[in-house]
Design goal:
Layout: H1 10-21, H2 38-53, E1 57-60, E2 66-70, E3 79-83, H3 97-113, E4 121-125, H4 139-144, H5 150-154, H6 164-171, E5 186-192, H7 197-201, E6 205-211, E7 213-222, E8 226-227, H8 239-257, E9 262-271, E10 277-278, E11 281-290, H9 293-313, E12 317-326, E13 329-330, H10 333-345, E14 350-355, H11 361-364, E15 370-375, H12 391-410
Parallel strand pairs: 3-4, 3-5, 5-15, 6-14
Antiparallel strand pairs: 1-2, 2-4, 6-13, 6-15, 7-11, 7-12, 8-10, 9-11
The structure holds (2S)-amino(hydroxy)ethanoic acid (HGY) and manganese (II) ion (MN) (2 copies).
């Protein structure tokens, strides 16, 4: 058998996906393994165990990234396959996990075939890609690639009051490998699209050209708690109303701008959160994204100006904190072309597209040839326990990953 005929073993890959998906399993499907939780620890233990079973040299760095290295015939920087295994609270079993486990499947396929590549290979999972518990997202890969300071990340306090550093120690993944200046020879990430494009079009492989810009803000609004029945409307400083106005405005800005602009208010917490008390305090998040940095800045300016005026007119104090801010990223054309020609060479349909979601790959893009392979999400659903991708699509994507990696690691 020549290298060109090599194929991954889909049953083995699906078996690992389901076994990992059973950790933190939710009733009705999907799973919850929020970053640095006990579920995340159990998932980490399982996957790093698989890395060792496959003969990889496993290291854990100081932000908890786990890298399995497979030596090549030559020394030097590895071709890296990576993604994440932490999930949101209503996660599917594919988001992130597919990219890591497809990487392990590539390794096992090469082991079975007795193939040693010229350049070393590595498979990695990065800490806290989701950013749902500790902002920003892509935290581990950002530290790994020097885009975020280690101490800054370790000091982040999460939504339940613990710090990244404390929880890394608590789950035993405060590794010792220094991090921040690692350079790969190339980086490839396979991921479910998490949107509807491939599924609607019936296309099997998304050739990802880049990742859109991300802007996460937290607004804290302080008004005056008061009696719901006795307080005249013109005497209220209602933090809840201002939060509601900001949420509607975020939607209106995205609708008015059209194009790739999206806006999401995922969190609104009121205090004291009681039926007969005018809200004293509101804390909310706004997620704005666009493929165009200038338009993303415009959306931010419109929203922040509105929030300031809405708070002032209600006599409510407004504070805004940036939780995450990443400019759009463009992937190396040579890598994008390689994914496209490899997929077409295997007879599968492709289309070029941006990524609406953030990914670890975007942290590697400034430092080495990087690109992503998307496979379809049924009905475009993700961050939802109904997330699903056909095994046939997973096989197609993993075979493309295998041959892209072979190509990059052979010369
Ligand atoms: O938010 C994102 O785009 C990713 O899921 N972290
Ligand atoms: Mn993901
Ligand atoms: Mn995600």
């Amino acid at each position: 058998m020549t290298c060109r005929d090599l194929k991954i073993n889909i049953e083995r890959l699906m078996g690992r996906l389901r076994e990992l998906g059973a950790i933190g399993a939710l009733p009705g499907g999907g799973c919850c393994r929020l970053a640095l939780s006990d579920g995340d620890r159990r998932g980490r233990d399982l996957v790093s165990g698989w890395m060792r079973d496959l003969g990889l040299e496993v290291s854990v760095d100081r932000i908890g990234n786990v890298v399995g290295l497979r030596p090549g015939r030559e020394n030097g920087a590895p071709v890296m396959i990576g993604s994440h295994i932490d999930t949101v609270a209503t996660g599917g079993i594919y988001d992130g996990c597919l990219g890591v486990l497809a990487g392990l499947e590539v390794i096992e396929t090469l082991n079975d075939a007795g193939i040693v590549t010229a350049h070393p290979l590595a498979v990695a999972f990065f800490t806290n890609e989701e950013g749902a518990r500790f902002a920003p997202d892509m935290m581990g890969s950002a530290v790994h690639q020097g885009a975020l300071g280690l101490d800054t990340a370790l000091a982040v306090t999460g939504i339940d009051g613990t710090t990244v550093g404390d929880d890394l120690r608590r789950i035993g993944y405060d590794g010792s490998t220094e991090t921040g200046d690692f350079r790969a020879r190339a980086f490839v990430e396979m991921h479910v699209e998490q949107g509807p494009v491939l599924d609607v079009e019936g296309t099997r492989i998304g050739v990802v050209e880049g990742v859109q810009g991300i802007s996460w803000s937290e607004f804290t609004l302080n008004g005056v708690a008061n009696h719901a029945g006795t307080t005249p409307m013109n005497m209220r400083c209602d933090a809840g109303v201002v939060a509601a106005r900001i949420a509607i405005k975020a939607r209106d800005i995205a609708t008015a701008m059209g194009g790739d602009q999206v806006a999401t208010v995922g969190v609104i917490d009121l205090a004291p959160n009681l039926v007969n008390v005018v809200p004293q305090r509101a804390q909310m998040t706004v997620d704005l994204r666009n493929t165009d940095e200038a338009l993303l800045k415009l959306a931010e300016a419109r929203l922040f100006d509105f929030a300031r005026d809405a708070a002032a007119s209600e006599g409510v104090e407004l504070k805004r904190r940036t939780l995450a801010r990443f400019e759009p990223v463009v992937f190396a054309s040579g890598m994008v072309d390689l994914i496209e020609t490899t997929a077409r060479g295997q007879g599968v349909s492709t289309r070029r597209m941006p990524s609406g979601a953030g990914h670890d790959a975007q942290m590697f893009a400034p430092n080495c040839p990087t690109a992503m392979i998307f496979v379809p999400s049924r009905d475009g659903i993700s961050h939802n326990i109904k997330e699903f991708t056909e095994p046939g699509h997973i096989r197609a994507g993993a075979d493309v990953l295998l041959h892209v990696v072979l190509e990059k690691a052979s010369n």
